[in-house]
Design goal:
The chain has 137 residues and is of the alpha/beta class. Helix content is 37%, strand content 30%. The strands form two sheets. It has a three-stranded mixed β-sheet with strand order 1-2-3, sandwiched between helices. The protein has a three-stranded mixed β-sheet with strand order 4-5-6, covered by helices on one side. The longest helix has 14 residues.
């Protein structure tokens, strides 16, 4: 279960009122002065706005970088959203002998994929799903 403190709830309230998109989660990265909003599936376009207008407006109001990630109940599809602009060819969940679940993602095209992006995807997948690790190839 995701726990939100008062600050995150306030950010979500502002975000939803300005964008009309539904937010599932809000993650603060004070080190990078960034707020990541995880929006419900099919709400990413609404959240971003025409030509990024909502993101630009929020960045100006909050004086922070804004990142929008679209959620999916399907962990493979969610991984595809997280790893954009890389293209996911296929994905599957496997289980190791020690009962740990691994989400295996095979990319057909790797674009701007660095270790930080993979680590962030891994953390978010672990946050929302009963999956212990992410392997990208």
């Amino acid at each position: 279960m995701i726990k939100l403190d008062t600050e995150k709830i306030q950010y979500i309230g502002l975000f939803e009122s300005l964008t009309n998109a539904s937010v599932k989660d809000c993650i603060l990265d004070r080190e990078k002065n960034r707020i990541t909003f995880v929006v419900k599936e099919n709400h990413a376009g609404r959240a971003i706005g025409k030509r990024g207008s909502n993101v630009k407006n929020l960045e100006k109001i909050l004086n922070k970088k804004i990142e929008i990630i679209e959620f999916s109940e399907d962990p493979v599809r969610f991984a595809a959203f997280l790893l954009r602009p890389s293209i996911v060819k296929e994905g599957f969940i496997s289980e190791r002998s020690d009962s740990k679940k691994i989400l295996n993602i095979v990319l057909s095209k790797k674009v701007d994929l660095d270790r930080n992006k993979i680590n962030k995807a891994k953390k978010l997948i672990q946050r929302y799903f009963d999956i212990d690790d992410l392997v990208v190839s």
